Amino acid sequence: MLKKPGLEELVRELERDYARWEQVYMAGSKDPFWPDGVNANLCRDHILCGKRRIRELYPDAEMPEIYYWPLPQKLPAEYMARKEEIRSAALRSYTRYISDENFCFIRNHVERIPETDALRGILDALLARADVLKDAVLSGDYVAMRRYADAGSLLASLKSGAERLGDWEPPEQEQLDLFTDYSPDGIQDEESMSMSM
């Protein structure tokens, strides 16, 4: 049988729920998939549940002061705190990402990896992050902007991808295309090769 929580413990939980709602409302959350409105309303539901639990477990006790605090407002599900800050961070991250030397290296040399190679899928996904972030800014998707606004982790992924691309060598049994330069210096198409001869 579960031990009945003490009234003081329930009050502390309620205090944490109120503080969490306030934090999400004012500063936002770090949830990578849900807007702040969804998270704030979840905190509001916890507050309702906490008050109900106090009333059910301690019906004869004098209700603590927090029990009478007003219930926080219900927010629109799409509510986001600090929108302009998120947008600015996303724009800075996008600019850093597409101008990073590793991004440019991957973009310029990914074609030398066959589409059937697992590394190609990884590199294509790294390049696609730039489009996802750009689309998020253009469409006003603040959750996606927040998810990709950390340039540090994005740049670390690019560096790892560029290193793997630099170390990649075509499999020995693969038939090579005579008109493709597989060296890390780049790819030359037929036209550029004929000009250099």
Helix/strand layout:
Blueprint lengths: L6 H21 L8 H22 L25 H17 L1 H9 L8 H22 L2 H7 L2 H17 L22 H7 L1
Helix pairs in contact: 1-2, 3-5, 3-6, 3-7, 4-7, 5-6, 5-7
Note down, in words, how this protein is organized.
By secondary structure, the chain is mainly alpha-helical. The chain folds into two domains: 7-68; 83-169, no CATH class. The chain is built from eight helices and no strands. It has helices at residues 7-27, 36-57, 83-99, 101-109, 118-139, 142-148, 151-167, 190-196. Helix 3 (83-99) packs parallel to helix 7 (151-167) and helix 5 (118-139) runs antiparallel to helix 7 (151-167). The model is unreliable at 187-197 (pLDDT under 50).
Poorly predicted regions are: 187-197
Radius of gyration: 27 Å
Beginning-to-end CA distance, first to last residue: 85 Å
Based on DSSP secondary structure assignment, what is the total number of beta strands?
A: 0
| Helical content (DSSP H or I, runs of 4+) | 55-70%
Query: Average pLDDT, to the nearest integer?
Result: 88
Specify the structural class: mainly alpha
Indicate the overall shape: elongated
Strand content: under 5%
The DSSP helix count reads: 8
Q: H/E element string?
A: HHHHHHHH
Tell me the number of structural domains: 2
Largest sheet: none
Please supply descriptive tags for the structure shown above:
197 residues, 62% helix, single chain, 8 helices, mainly alpha
